[in-house]
Records
---
Amino acid sequence: MEDEREDVQKKTFTKWINAQFSKFGKQHIENLFSDLQDGRRLLDLLEGLTGQKLPKEKGSTRVHALNNVNKALCVLQKNNVDLVNIGSTDIVDGNHKLTLGLIWNIILHWQVKNVMKNIMAGLQQTNSEKILLSWVRQSTRNYPQVNVINFTTSWSDGLALNALIHSHRPDLFDWNSVVCQQSATQRLEHAFNIAKYQLGIEKLLDPEDVATTYPDKKSILMYVTSLFQVLPQQVSIEAIQEVEMLPRPSKVTREEHFQLHHQMHYSQQITVSLAQGYERTPSSPKPRFKSYAYTQAAYVTTSDPTRSPLPSQHLETPDDIGRSSMETEVTLDSYQTALEEVLSWLLSAEDTLQAQGEISNDVEEVKEQFHTHEGYMMDLTSHQGRVGNVLQLGSQLIGTGKLSEDEETEVQEQMNLLNSRWECLRVASMEKQSNLHKVLMDLQNQQLKELNDWLTKTEERTRKMEKEPLGPDIEDLKRQVQQHKVLQEDLEQEQVRVNSLTHMVVVVDESGGDQATAALEEQLKVLGDRWANICRWTEDRWVLLQDILLKWQRFTEEQCLFSAWLSEKEDALNKIHTTGFKDQSEMLSSLQKLAVLKTDLEKKKQTMDKLCSLNQDLLSTLKNTLVAQKMEAWLDNFAQRWDNLVQKLEKSSAQISQAVPTTQPSLTQTTVMETVTMVTTREQILVKHAQEELPPPPPQKKRQIIVDSEIRKRLDVDITELHSWITRSEAVLQSPEFAIYRKEGNFSDLKEKVNVGYALNFMYFPKFCCL
């Protein structure tokens, strides 16, 4: 397995170096390990990366190679590249592991950190891997088939790479064709080709190296960073926080996982799919809260106290030694060297356990302590073989019979001490693990109970809010909107607890693990459904409240404006004189004012229709009987005031008509009516053509009719008769008979009488003109 990973890294790192050499105009390398041994090609690489000219030794001896590599290491140190445990001899000797480590540190510095330094500074973050994972998850969150939680297994099927490219460049290919029609290898080949020919990224990986159970993390990181370099680089704080909430992988390699699986029970990832809560539609406002699915990390412990995850080491018997396959001769010096190394590590492990400190009361801190201790336990497991080897060496050394009695006693005491300290450390670490399990489960169960109680309380709260009718006036509605905002704020606060439960650490017994996990999954599903329902109800009600508030405000605004307009016109009509005119001009001024009012009424008639429409729209959404009654009362009041204004306008016109004989005997009723009509028509024309900016019509000229004395006498008689007829007509209108006509809605007789009077008027004065 280690050889496979080494081969992948060798191939990937070689491609990366050659991609850099192509940029610098340098010759490519063929073998990563042998071509870097003399240090020259390493200096060529650093020249291109640093932009500095680096002199090289021209000789071909080992000394020249060591000098070249040392120069390269000095350059790396000046650029703050990590070089722990890497020396010039390691590179010159062609040490595969350390050569790969050196190149990875170069890639990490110039390819990863250097590319991401600006965004890391802006976000005040120092972990480049976390930023990169946050960017990937933020970019692919709209792809349900993709869930990237690491830089290994999440990339095997090829969907993540395609989704990452498609999220930023959807114009390059059709996503559905990638999902439905291709295998993992084909999808990876597709992504690499798109990246190369459309984005200019070299094909650093081969599909078969990624389409495996456990791809190489460093190779994936290097390639994803190349994509990050050419694609938009937005990363939100929310995306970083989401990554921080992901379950942390245990600090153990895949090889160690397989080697130690028979000794230790490992963590299992159990994903429970739950209702996701409200999903915002394009027309709805941005939700201020969100719901999560719950992911449980179930750490299975054994129910048999004799089977511990960390087996103890005991001193082997001579029979055990005889059965051992060790054929190398053991010396006292080699035993002492091995013993000192193990004791040094054991002392460090004891200090590390002690430094973990007391278990916290905060659930998030306990989770952190749990994951830290899990890594610590993995470290103990990986080193327990070294303890056993030292004990075996000591037993074998004693069995040779070459030691003096004092030496043998000393070795025996050393072995007993080592075994005792190891056993104490093992027991203490197991006890710490057990205590962490208990405290963490207690805190998480408390969280579940608190969430359940909060959901019950909030469900009752929403039921009460649902039953309360909206309104009955706009101030009450505003109060209900504020009340709903408080509920939203409570949801945001509770979201913290929901986030904490997003990744639970569940400890179950091996004997009843399946049943306990199934029960917990069902409990979490119920809680998740209830949480999602509250989120949806809160969002839907918020949209409804905002819609009603907007409609109510529009209705109220139109209502106030129309009421003010009615008051203004009522006051204007009350100020118009209808009797006691001093001369003809005063009377005509009143007629003109009446005509203007008549025009305003005609134009404003649409406002009444608009108010009725707004009222119906609001009531259809509000569904409140009390509010409907209040608004109908308002509209009835407006209609009554409107009718009163129209009737008073007509009455004022009639009063002016009655005042004609007293003001100007020569001005007939027909003159008054024509004047009103003429003024009204003029006002309508002015209104109709105001936007066309036509010049005002010239003032009307007075036309005088020259008549002899005989005609004048006849005119006076006719005016007197006409005035008498008008008086009689008014008397008829005020009579009980007219009341009956009005009640029955039959005005045919009355219209006939009025038409006869007007016919007589026009018959006697067909050519009468006025101003």
Note: The chain is about 70% helix and 5% strand.
---
Amino acid sequence: MSEPKPPTPTTPTAGDTYKGWLFKWTNYIKGYQRRWFVLSNGLLSYYRSQAEMGHTCRGTINLATANIAVEDSCNFVVSNGGAQTYHLKASSEVERQRWITALELAKAKAVRMQDESDDSGDEFCVVAPVSGQGAGSHNSEIQSTLRTLSSKVEDLTTCNDLIVKHGSALQRSLSELEALRVGAEMGEKIRQVTERATLFRITSNAMINACRDFLSIAQMHSKRWQKALQTERDQRIRLEETLEQLAKQHNHLERAFRGATVLPPSLSNPNLSIKSGVSGKGDASDEDDDNEFFDAMEDPTGFITVPADPKYHRRSGSNVSGISSEMGTDDTSFDELSLASNSESLPPLELEPVRQRRTRIPDKPNYYLNLWSIMKNCIGKELSKIPMPVNFNEPLSMLQRLSEDLEYYELLDKAAKCHNSLEQMCYVAAFTVSSYSTTVHRTGKPFNPLLGETFELDRIRESGYRSLCEQVSHHPPAAAHHAFSEKGWTLRQEITLASKFRGKYLSIMPLGSIQCIFDKSNNQYSWKKVTTTVHNIIVGKLWIDQSGEIDVVNHKTGDRCHLKFAPYSYFSRDVPRKVTGVVTDKDGKAHYVLSGTWDEKMEFSRIMQSSKGENGTEGKQRTVYQTLKPKEIWRKNPLPDGAENMYYFSSLALTLNEPEEGVAPTDSRRRPDQRLMEEGRWDEANAEKQRLEEKQRSTRREREKDAVKAAATPEEADAHEAGTTASEVSDESAHPENYQALWFEKINDSASGETLHVYKGGYWEAKEQGGWEMCPDIF
């Protein structure tokens, strides 16, 4: 079904409904985007597509108060004074002129109607025109009422002027009367005063009667107008509720349709059911052509998936689309394929008592704090340099949040048992996505670690792994993380956070690399994190979104998995918080498709055949993958009971700050402000947080002094000692940070070509011996 062409009258009239495609500039994606515009009843509205006209309007400008300006041959601007501004571009100069003419005519009509109805303040209430005699009688009744009220106002104005005039005259007569002596003139003056008093009383009575008439008419019609206004409000509320319900039902039906069982297809079948919601040459409309596998961003590399031919389910030992027989071609789950191929027997279990971890922390207190009073002076600044009270925090440090990435360590355990690198890549990619599942409700900011702060997570008995984090730099803040498992994998990462507060939202951009190395195959994987955005910072309920792209690379084999995190949109036809990915080999041939959501689950499908499909939106060609039935590879663990009162912590997060014996003096569990916050003593925690930050600044100044002295000659050192002021020393940008990490060292990784801090050893040995003498006093 082709899109209807916009009307192109030579000279549009003021009563026309004018529609058509225009390109609109948007700051979110930095460019012009094609949008469907509708001009009707003095309102200019736009939609993402024609299909949205029935349920979702993206924006509306009332032309009665708008300014229309031409920029060049194809561009023009429509603005209503600053609150809304549309920068638009037509396909040609002729088309632009048609739009300008239609907009000017519609604006003139809107201004005229606004003046006639004297209702310029209600620019959002649009009453449908009434046809026939009803419209004429309705308008005449309104005009008659307005004329009556206007005449009464004029009467009130006249009476007011007369009251002022006669009142002044009466006052003068009374003054003259007081000055007269008793005699012949007394009677004349009394008569004048009596006449003027009578005139004043008559005028006052007329004023009172006019006011009474005006109030009577106003009250009578006010009740009717209030009733009509309330009716319009109720209808608007019901309409909004209906639209919201329809949007939810539409989303539910879309998800149900995608998950429904379909008949065995082929690419030539016109009734082909496509998992991503994009239909072939069937009976669906072109509205679905925009619904690519990756989301509404219309990525040119988008793809769609279809169930593979049943023959691939029966064949074994074949080599279809470059997939070797050792990977299997039946519809067997990942666990069966990987674990069955690993004939090694598991080591005997050690019957040692496992420590019982806590399952609750004190409930979060309900403290009120004016966020805007703190954040209004911080717009555009680096978040790590903004002094924040603990009211915005959660009782965990950034080091502990990094350790939470290991909540789904089982994925790496399974990956370590894989004999095939492409299967292993799927597990690593699922582990990459799983690390974001704990953030969906976690709107609290973790504590910024102090320089030299550490955090250990020893789960060698329960889960077979140990983890260590250390804050290796303060400006910029950087944390190094190392974890190793008895199951044959090592995870290491160094993360530096760059964050900006933009007024309405907060963007957190993790910089740095994450690496995973498997001992048995010597495969080394690396990837980076996506951007985290916290919305509704000032007004509304806070919510978290993850968006961006990740490339997971196997540096040994050249395999690659490209993951895309689609930005969340309430009215999107796609699944919220969607993640999609394709696993390819070193030659770029696709072998697996991954799909799911970062807050719930991930599935994988093996690709049996691929081909170029029809052109999608705006002529972009998409790849069609025939896949086996999808299998679940990861699912989020349910939150513990009462998590909403415990900062939405997962079961693992509840145990991270639990006190433990034998940890280093620099461990985050020993941090006093964090402990006070967890116990609900926020005022004391704020005071302790300020003390620790000041102590860290003092330590930094001393370290910079020592660094300058060590690098200078004795004469230069004496001059510096005598001439350096406290403000110069405290300037954090004046000197590079002279700090050597205690448990990590910086190396150049030859496989990935990156420079990062890696664990140099010694921590767990020091813990066994209790030798913490080298640890700095940071708390």
Note: The two ends are 69 Å apart (CA to CA).
---
Amino acid sequence: MRTYLLLLLWAHLSHHAHTKAVLRRTTEDLLHGPTGAGVATAEGVTLKRSKRGWMWNQFFLLEEYTGSDYQYVGKLHSDQDRGDGTVKYILNGDGAGSLFLIDENSGDIHATKRLDREEKAYYTLRAQAVNKKTGWPLEPESEFIIKIHDINDNEPKFSKDVYTASVPEMSDVGTSVIQVTATDADDATYGNSAKVVYSILQGQPYFSVEPDTGIIRTALSNMNRESRENYQVVIQAKDMAGQMGGLSGTTTVSITLWDVNDNPPRFPQGVYQFSAPESTEVGSPVGKIKATDADVGKNAEMDYSIIGGDGIDVFDIVTDTDSQEGVITVKKPLDYEKKKMYVLKVQVENIHLDPRFLSKGPFKDTATVKITVEDVDEPPNFERPSYVMEVKEDAPIGSIIGSVSATDPDASRSPVRYSIDRRTEMHWLFNVHAGNGSIFTLEALDREEHSWHNISVVATEFNPKQSSRVPVYIRVLDINDNAPTFADVYETFVCENAKDGQRIQTVSAMDADEPVGGHKFFFSLAPEASVKANFSVRDNRDNTAGILTRRSGFNRLQQSSYLVPVVISDGDYPMQSSTNTLTVHVCACDRDGNMKACSAEALLRSAGLSTGALVAILLCVIILLSEPAVLIVVLFAALRRQKKKEPLIISKEDVRDNVVSYNDEGGGEEDTQAFDIGTLRNPEAIEDNKQRRDIVPESLYPPVRRAPVTSRENTDVRDFISQRLQDNDADPTAPPYDSLATYAYEGNGSVAESLSSLGSATTEGDHDYNYLTDWGPRFRKLADMYGGEDSDRES
């Protein structure tokens, strides 16, 4: 049986051209010489060849064995094995002892498991024959290979389960879309187990696939994305070169047609109608129009424009890049009274054109837009956006300085009433005629106080009340109503040794008026001072004048100062003039005219300081230089600031504001020694005619007659208080009911409970307040209040 299996193995291996003999006897000399014969070399050295008893190269084993027994691999045999059981075969290497087992007596090799070439294609092992008793090797260890023979047990597999691809719409036939790739794990060097062929199972007739490369191409022309955008294509890969019995795998390719600009924009309707109030502001939208385009993305981007119509200058259209709508806006103000309807011709066209599809026609479209202007009630319109008026400052009150005019732009032509916004003219210097818009003065004007007045005039319709306003700028024109005066110098000095005709000062003038040609001043000495004058005035003809001496020598001991009246006149009409006095102080000077000695007043005045300022400066100097003086000043100030406080109570008799504290808490109701209640126990000792501060004097109202109280030595206090309670309830001059009456005695155990007049049984109706009318005008309001309630109650 063993010999038969060996013959089967030999028959199987001889089927393959590349298979070599597994067992080979080596007892013959490789060089066709005797075993162990030497070979002589050129050097005369004899080489000996070692003898091998057995050798082999490789075994072949089919994968995926399905039998129940161990799969037989082959047999090992050594020439040293004579069948006496002394030889033992040993196997080492990949899978030895687990995957591959060897019979140590016979040398048969078996595979214990099912092998897969895709997991491991070959195994390298080592075999050796040893003496079973001694363990010594009978042959050197030799290496051999067990190669797993492939069978077609793996189907082709694609690198992806689902592929995604895209191709432009309207592409030509044969346009490449995507390439799919499938791999087969079988041995590509053996047969056709790994030779894959591609075919299309789903997606025809739109797409095709190349059998060898797996490239998917378009199969139809003019595939339109607008008709169908997505396609699902199923591709099959089959091994064994696609022959029957081969294994196969499939994958799905999702193909999307991406858009090209092959569709022009089109308006869904030929005429659009909109309406806009005439009050619509410039830049405001009136309406929106939108053209349709079957394309998407940038291929659907459009541009709108107005190419004709009578409203091409009044309206504009812009493109909304987000919604691709044409927004019509107002370009100029609308006026219903001037034009009630506009007609526009609007054009839309694509921005991004594809030259391949221009033959389909123009990628543009036009539509007509009609816009109706609606009438609204508008406020009055002034003829001008602003008014500028002029008035002289000497204009009499009531003078008309100008007028404004506004009209109702509506068809109703409602009358307009004018007024001045007093928030802009709070001094009431001007007013406007309500009917004709004439502006006139209400007060005298003064240009030197305000040269411009800015007011707002409001024009209001009568019905409905719509108003508008306009600014009015009023300029007050100058008249020559101010006399010129000295500009800055009012005092100067002259030396005692001054000579006749010497200039001591140059003066200038100023004028609040502003003449058109500029100021022109004339200076002269006052006529009343020209007789025996000590000084003269010389006009320099440049709006300045020089003050000159008219004698030689001055004596400051005889006269320390002189007054020089200077008349200053302007050159305007009517001419205005004023007399200004220049004070000249006489001072001692050296030969060069430098002042050496002069009165203190002259020095200070020349420096611009008054007498009060001099006193303040001297006082500060004294305080800073004298420390005792500082103390005196501080003490004086403290004494001046100290005031004698008035007593809180001027008269002991006036106790209205006194608060008397006795610092005595008292011992409670049981303490009978804390105070004397003899007064309460002797009611006759109380004065009946004592006036109270909170009631009307009895001279104005007759007192209530009280019933006499029986005098007893031990009159009970409770009876006394009850009597007083009755007296107060019956007395109309008693305090009001919401006053708290204190009777100073509650009684032991408080059996009297509450004695407040608030709980008395009398009502407001029991009192008569008519006497309040006799108290004079100061109580008239109070009499009306109480008397009115009585009259209301009676009615």
Note: The longest helix spans residues 611-625.
---
Amino acid sequence: MSSNDGIQIPSRLPLLLTDEGVLLPGSTMRISVDTPRNMQLVKSRLLKGTSLKSTIIGVIPNTKDPEHDNQELPSLHSIGTAGLAVQVVGSNWPKPHYTLLITGLCRFRVAQMLKERPFVVAEVEQLDKLEQYTEGQELDGELGELAQRFYQDAVQLVGMLDMSVPVVAKLRRLLDSLPRETLPDVLASMIRTSNKEKLQVLDAVDLEERFKRALPLLTRQIEGLKLLQKTRKPRPDDDKRVLVVRKGGVFPGHQFSLDEEGEDEDGDDMAVLDKKVKEAGMPEHALRVCLKELKRLKKMPQSMPEYALTRSYVELMVELPWNKSTTDCLDIRAARVLLDNDHYAMEKLKKRVLEYLAVRQLKSALKGPILCFVGPPGVGKTSVGRSIARTLGREFHRIALGGVCDQSDIRGHRRTYVGSMPGRIINGLKTVGVNNPVFLLDEVDKLGKSLQGDPAAALLEVLDPEQNHSFTDHYLNVSFDLSQVLFIATANTTATIPPALLDRMEVLQVPGYTQEEKVEIAHRHLIPHQLEQHGLTPQQLQIPHHTTLDIITKYTREAGVRSLERKIGAICRAVAVKVAEGHKSPKVEQPSVDESLRESEMAAPPEMPIVIDPMALKDILGPPLFEMEVSERLTLPGVAIGLAWTPLGGEIMFVEASRMEGEGQLTLTGQLGDVMKESAHLAISWLRSNAKKYQLTNLTGGPDPLEGTDIHLHFPAGAVTKDGPSAGVTIVTCLASLFSGRLVRSDVAMTGEITLRGLVLPVGGIKDKVLAAHRAGLRRVILPKRNEKDLEEIPAPVRAELDFVAASSLSDVLNAAFDGGFPITTNPLPHPHVTSKL
């Protein structure tokens, strides 16, 4: 293709029809190819060609709508540009297409059309006789004067730009190195011109004519720039940055593009990004990776799919708070006041936060603790996390983990995947903009597991104080220090949290509220909030304390206060209707006699404030949802009350037993688990072995309770699955009542695990269970002796209203559960472990 005489192009060229612009010799242009003819040309010649000759194609401006490419070929422009395809990039989005980077070589004229399908091929005649322009040869005569004038104008135009920009300085050096005869084509492709004007330069085969056509375009650009500088307000370096300089490509020299936009769109943008990278304060290992990606980005054309991915990565690195942090508020007194104002009770949580602040005063480089608040819904676990952030003066970010089953949500996706993004931890740090926020990992006990990995396992590194100083996100692929982040996890139960994850967290139990605490919370927080939400004032609505207590006991049964807040909201809506009806709209005209009579017959507006009494409460909320049914259900032998723990708090649980003639079979119903079934068999065995001692008989009065008798044990709420060992003492008491024919005391509830020898073993959830018994109006609670230590967590008002019996054996349980002891004695002695009003 190339010889000593100059550049020679093939006599037969495939033609690329384009409507995106005009390619001039010496310039580089990106062309999008998506029509059938052009796509076939790329596939057949450029992708399959093996020689340099196969990459030379003819580029001719297309005067036809490319959407109708399948119709007959129109008459082509007679002159085109032979170009070298230096890059081919394919993509399927939004539709299949190729992007070509083509450098113009020389002009040609179409001599004869050889074929039109599958792509256009023509016989061409080369027009630019480049061999006559040898190095060092000077143009003379009128042509030399035109060339010199054109060169001077080009130097003037470039001199008006900011020479501190590297691409502008390179353009200035390029003007001195290029042969003068190539300047019209190069400058015409750089300055702002229409396609029609570029076609005129392309059609100028004669060099002198080419200078004459390009010179007015260059002069117009200079004059337009001068006028723009006069009309715009002067700013520092404004006269140097009025034109855009975009690097376009290189072959055989360099080619640039100038535009009157006022800024350097690409080069300046990269300079700003480079400045941000250096000012981000990254550690050395992260800065090294970021600079490497930025260097790749500068060399990458914007049309490449990887450009957007790399730029997004660099911008994420810049936006992360590598060294930005907030200063903690270490005033312990102010923190205590703020926590008390935001939340009533929760003394254990407040104490832990104040301890953290105290240690921070003594040691500033303290790693953030990793806390886990465990408790039923509605007790304020999430809101207390927000209050902790406000107390410390830190940013707060909540990450909901309920239902998350992909470990990439935590650690991010690798950048090799389409649609990859960082994990929630890194994304949260980007959102808050500091490296020491308070992160609330909500519902950590509801993490799932799938084929995409185990997110609970991914959290192990995040929540390990010994590892999270170098947490590595898959997308970021560099370590980030999480040691200053205060992580707070919330959960309803620890049963579903993997042991390894639970071991990394400091668990703080958040039990349910007592009735007195709920009343106080309602009047401190819930009622004022609902009044504000419904546009009411305390002068319009008042809810007395005894009404609030009725709502708590008769219309809600929960460990938290969410249902209580909804009931208060229902009262506010009902009162809002009354208040709205009391406001009469102003009337413009005088009412008639009939209207006056009708208004006088209407009810008078309600007196303010509206006080909610028990009658009004029933009218608004309806009949009570929960009545005290304990005494009614204990009217027959064979019924006892147990205490159960659920993720929603403690609950009372009835156990019912009946017997009938049969073959000694035991039937268990109520969705029981294996552990509870085994507890029932243990209870039967222990009672049979001690039947004579406790005077237990069967239906015929025989000494064996199961002889000729079938036993049916039922746990009501049959649709709810139940399991656990703590119902053992309740089952024994229920069956003892059945076999002896005696009633269990109606104010007693119990919990505890049993053994075959009649021992009572400790169980968990004592505080929640005791609060459930207190809510139900019970007065005596039987619990294992080894659980006496857990009574310290019970609020003092609740302990004062309950009698606790600490039982070490089933004999103690039966003596406390029946009036007069078990079996009946003439002078029953008080149980040695009864503690009254603890």
Note: The chain has six domains: 12-129, 152-229, 276-319, 332-508, 515-580+606-621, 639-817.
